[in-house]
Amino acid sequence: MITGNRSPLQVIPTAEAENPRWQDQIADMITDLPTLLAYCRLTDPPATLADMAANPFPVRVTRFFADLMAPGDWHDPLLLQVLPWQSEQQDTPGYSTDPLAEADATALPGLIHKYRSRVLIVPTSACAIHCRYCFRRHFPYTEHRLRPQQRQDIIDYLHDHAEINEVIFSGGDPLMLQDRTLHDWLQQLAAVPSLTRVRLHSRLPVVLPDRLTEPLLNILTGTRLQPVLVLHANHPRELSERLAQRLRPWTRAGVTLFNQTVLLGGINATAAAQSALSERLFALGVLPYYLHQTDAVAGTAHFTVTDAEAQALHRELQAALPGFLVPRLVREVPGDAGKRWLRV
User: Fold this and answer.
1) Same domain, 166 and 310
2) How many domains is the chain built from?
3) Predicted local distance difference test score (pLDDT) of residue 19
4) In angstroms, rounded to a whole number, what is the distance separating the alpha carbons of residues 110 and 310?
5) What is the CATH number of the domain that holds 256?
6) Which partner from 95, 141, 184, 189 sits 20 to 30 angstroms from 343, CA to CA?
7) 276 in a structural domain
8) Phi-psi region of 305 (alpha: psi -120 to 50; beta: other; left: phi over 0)
9) Which are the contacts of 306, defined by CB distance < 8 A and separation ≥ 6?
10) Which residues pair with 232 in a beta bridge?
11) Statement to judge: residues 85 and 178 lie in one domain
12) How confident is the model at residue 7, as a pLDDT?
C-alpha cells in the first residue's frame, strides 16, 4: 500500500494538447475587415481601404498568421498580403479574371490538364487565407464542385490517359479537406497504374501549422505514390517556430518539401528578403522551388514587379546564395509546355 503524500500526475503536453484542433482554429478565423483591423491594432490607414460590401473576395485569415504580424504596422509584409486596398477594385488594362486561360484547359469539372504528364485537381474552394494577389480569386468554383460522380469521372480520365504520371492537388487549398476525404482520394489515385507521384500545393502549413498532423502524414505516406508537399511562403517572417516543429516528422518520413514564392512589390521584392527566406526554408528542410512573377489577375496590379526588376533581383540572389537555394524565376504563360523561365 502506498502511504504519505503523493505528487500529482504530471502530464507531458503534446502539440495537440497545447493548441486547439486545426478545425477549431479554422472556425475561429478572421473573416471581415473591421475584425482584422481591430485584431492588428490598426488605426488611421495611410490610403483608402476597399469597400468590402462590393468586393466578392472577402477578407479571410487565420489568427495564427495574424499573430505573426507587427501590431499597428500598416506596412507589415504579412499584413499587406491580406489587406484589401481600394486600388484592387480599379480596372487595369491587360488584367483579367482568367489570365492563365484555365477555362480552356479544363478537361472536366475540377480537373485542369495544362501539361502533358500532369494534371491539376481542384477538390475544394475553401482556403484558410485570402491572399489579395491570388490568381484564382475569380475562379468559378461553383462550376467545379466534385460530387461522387464527378470524382469518379476524374479517376476514369486518369485511367484513360496513360501519359499522366503526376496529380497535383490545388484549390482553394487541398489541406482544407478532412482526412477521410484525402484518404479516399489517395487510395483511388494509387490504383491508377500510370501515376507515380501526388503533389499537394498548400498555404495551410504556413498559416496554420497544426494542420500538419500525424494522421495526415500517415495518409500521404500510406500509398505507393511518392508524396510531395509544396508550401507557399513569401516572406521569412512567415516561417514560424511552430511550422519548424510540425515539419520535422515530415522530413524524417521522407516527404519531399518544396516552397514556391510570389514576387510582390512592396512586400518581398528585395534580395535581403528573398535570401533570408531561402536560408530559413532550408533550415526547415524545405527547398526553394519557384519565384513566380504575379499573374495579370484583375485586382492585383498594385503587386506587380517588372521583369527587369525581377531579373536584377534574381542576379543578386545568384551572387548571395548557393545554387540550390536560388529559386527559379518563372512566369506562367497559357499554352506553354511548362513554366516559362525568365532568364537573367
Assistant:
1) yes
2) 2
3) 66
4) 33
5) 3.20.20.70
6) 95
7) yes
8) beta
9) none
10) 260
11) no
12) 30
Q: Is residue 94 part of a domain?
A: no
Tell me the pLDDT tens digit for each residue of 159-175: 999 999 999 999 899 99
Structural domain harbouring 167:
106-341
Known binding-site positions: 127, 131, 134
How much is the pLDDT for 18? 52
Kindly state whether residue 4 falls inside one of the protein's structural domains: no
Q: Looking at the structure, do residues 209 and 255 belong to the same domain, yes or no?
A: yes
What DSSP letter does each residue of 64-110 carry, written as one string? Answer: HHHHTSPTT-TT-TTGGGT--BGGGGS--TT-BS-TT-TTTTEEETT
Residues comprising the binding site for [4Fe-4S] cluster?
127, 131, 134
pLDDT of residue 53: 86
Sequence-distant (6+) residues with CB within 8 A of 318 are 326, 344
Is 8 a domain residue? no
Binned average pLDDT, 10 residues per bin, the chain of 344 residues: 32 46 97 98 96 90 98 98 94 93 95 96 96 93 93 98 98 96 98 98 98 98 98 98 98 98 98 98 98 95 97 98 98 93 86
Single out the residue of 3, 33, 25 nearest to residue 212, CA to CA: 25
Return contacts of 63-67, CB within 8 angstroms, 24+ apart. Answer: 63/25, 63/28, 63/29, 63/30, 63/39, 64/25, 64/207, 64/208, 64/209, 64/210, 64/240, 64/242, 65/129, 65/206, 65/207, 65/208, 65/238, 66/30, 66/36, 66/39, 66/40
What residue spans of the chain are helical by DSSP H? 15-18, 22-27, 33-39, 63-67, 148-160, 179-190, 204-207, 214-220, 241-252, 271-283, 307-320
DSSP secondary structure letters along 22-41 = HHHHHHT-B-SHHHHHHHTT
Give the three-class secondary structure for 183.
Answer: helix
Buried-exposed string 144-172: b where 16+ CB fall within 10 A, e elsewhere: bebeeeebebbeebbeeeeebebbbbbbb
Domain boundary among 47, 64, 89: 89
